[in-house]
């Protein structure tokens, strides 16, 4: 594997993945449309950290401009991370944009790959939000899909359209269901980013609901590793959960964060926007067995790394 296309290369996971690929000697074509879910200055900073690497070509444009011939030329693997993310903003008029960026743009990519004499391997970013609120102990990939947000519905539909192309044409597409990824460069709308920022400013930490909701938070480098493993080992149509070291309640995470900043967080409980899952907990056995995936970064260490990064940004 020597040449990759990364869609969403300036975003949170995409920028880390791009750096990792470049470090491994892969030539990377990066496309990013600068959607307004992640502020432009932060994305430019991510790109600056990738730097002027001779093996990196960046296209600042939306996938809908469809310059696939140029982007896919000689590419072995496509890492498709471009999307409109976030569960809480996907209601109302915004849904059209979610459909556009998460379903329609993905279908355009699949069609473009199909036109090539040898289609590349495509690793598509999906989400634990396809499951909704989880029942039982762990959720494996065969668990029922019951999204509780319009965003989750678009991710489910995105998976379905991929499966249709796999079945009809054997297109080598695989899907990764990430569980709430965190770490340096986390999207500003996401919980840890907001909590650290609020605590650093001495502001109240806004908790949606009672803080008893739980997540299987996944460190960004582990999500990146899952992408590389999937590109190497996954079969067409396979779907994998990508989770972290354990399930934990939000209030327990805030205790760890307070310890890092040496403060007692001042918590402000508010009724949360609709669309929130109460609980996620990944069964990652399939990814372990088939891909050799094993999360490497425990939550405590990942939180420390995110805090160090955010403190440096705040000073810089
Ligand atoms: C995240 C991402 O935003 C989705 O794009 C992704 O698909 C999803 O993870 C996933 O992996 O499935 P979410 O789990 O809501 O969604 O992640 P956070 O935004 O980090 O929120 C975690 C929890 O903290 C949620 O229960 C949320 O309600 C809560 N929260 C968030 C607060 O209490 N206060 C805030 O200010 C922000």
For the structure shown, list the relevant keywords.
single chain; 316 residues; alpha/beta; Rossmann fold; seven-stranded parallel sheet; two-stranded parallel ribbon; binds uridine-5'-diphosphate-glucuronic acid
Q: Would you write up a description of this structure?
A:
The protein is of the alpha/beta class and 316 residues long. It has a domain at 3-179 and 219-244 and 282-296: Rossmann fold (3-Layer(aba) Sandwich). Helices cover 41% and strands 17% of the residues. The chain contains ten helices and 13 strands. It has helices at 12-23, 40-50, 68-72, 94-114, 150-169, 191-200, 220-233, 250-261, 285-291, 299-315; strands spanning 3-7, 27-32, 56-60, 77-80, 121-127, 173-178, 181-182, 205-208, 214-215, 218-219, 239-242, 248-249, 267-270. It has a seven-stranded parallel β-sheet with strand order 3-2-1-4-5-6-11, with helices on both faces. Strand 4, helix 4 (94-114) and strand 5 (121-127) form a beta-alpha-beta unit. The longest helix is centred in the first third of the chain and has 21 residues, at 94-114. The two termini are 37 Å apart. It binds uridine-5'-diphosphate-glucuronic acid.
Topology:
Elements: E1 3-7, H1 12-23, E2 27-32, H2 40-50, E3 56-60, H3 68-72, E4 77-80, H4 94-114, E5 121-127, H5 150-169, E6 173-178, E7 181-182, H6 191-200, E8 205-208, E9 214-215, E10 218-219, H7 220-233, E11 239-242, E12 248-249, H8 250-261, E13 267-270, H9 285-291, H10 299-315
Parallel strand pairs: 1-2, 1-4, 2-3, 4-5, 5-6, 6-11, 7-10, 8-13
Antiparallel strand pairs: 9-12
Helix pairs in contact: 1-2, 1-7, 4-5, 6-8, 6-10, 8-10
Uridine-5'-diphosphate-glucuronic acid binds at residues 85-87, 127-129, 178-180, 190-191, 194, 206-208, 213, 215, 250, 272, 276.
């Amino acid at each position: 594997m020597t040449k990759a296309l990364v869609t969403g290369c300036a975003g949170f996971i995409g920028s880390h993945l791009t750096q990792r690929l470049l470090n491994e000697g892969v030539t990377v074509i990066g496309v990013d449309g600068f959607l307004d879910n992640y502020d432009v200055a932060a994305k430019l900073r991510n790109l600056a950290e990738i730097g002027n690497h001779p093996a990196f070509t960046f296209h600042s444009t939306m996938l809908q401009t469809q310059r696939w011939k140029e982007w896919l030329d000689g590419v072995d693997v496509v890492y498709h991370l471009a999307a409109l993310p976030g569960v809480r903003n996907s209601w109302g008029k915004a849904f059209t944009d979610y459909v556009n960026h998460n379903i329609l743009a993905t279908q355009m990519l699949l069609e473009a790959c199909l036109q090539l004499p040898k289609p590349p391997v495509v690793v598509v970013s999906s989400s634990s939000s396809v499951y909704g609120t989880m029942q039982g102990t762990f959720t494996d990939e065969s668990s029922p899909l019951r999204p509780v947000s319009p965003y989750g519905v678009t991710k489910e539909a995105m998976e379905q359209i991929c499966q249709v192309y796999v079945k009809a044409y054997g297109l080598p597409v695989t899907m990764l269901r990430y569980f709430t990824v965190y770490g340096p460069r986390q999207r500003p709308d996401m919980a840890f980013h907001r909590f650290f920022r609020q605590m650093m400013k001495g502001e109240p930490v806004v908790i949606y609901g009672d803080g008893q909701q739980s997540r299987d938070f996944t460190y960004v480098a582990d999500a990146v590793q899952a992408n590389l493993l999937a590109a190497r080992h996954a079969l067409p149509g396979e779907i994998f959960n990508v989770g972290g070291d354990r399930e934990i309640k939000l209030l327990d995470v805030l205790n760890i964060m307070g310890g890092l900043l040496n403060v007692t967080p001042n918590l402000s409980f508010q009724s949360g926007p609709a669309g929130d899952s109460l609980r996620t907990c990944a069964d990652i056995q399939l990814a372990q067995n088939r891909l050799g995936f094993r999360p490497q970064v425990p939550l405590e260490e990942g939180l420390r790394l995110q805090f160090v990064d955010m403190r440096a940004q705040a000073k810089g």
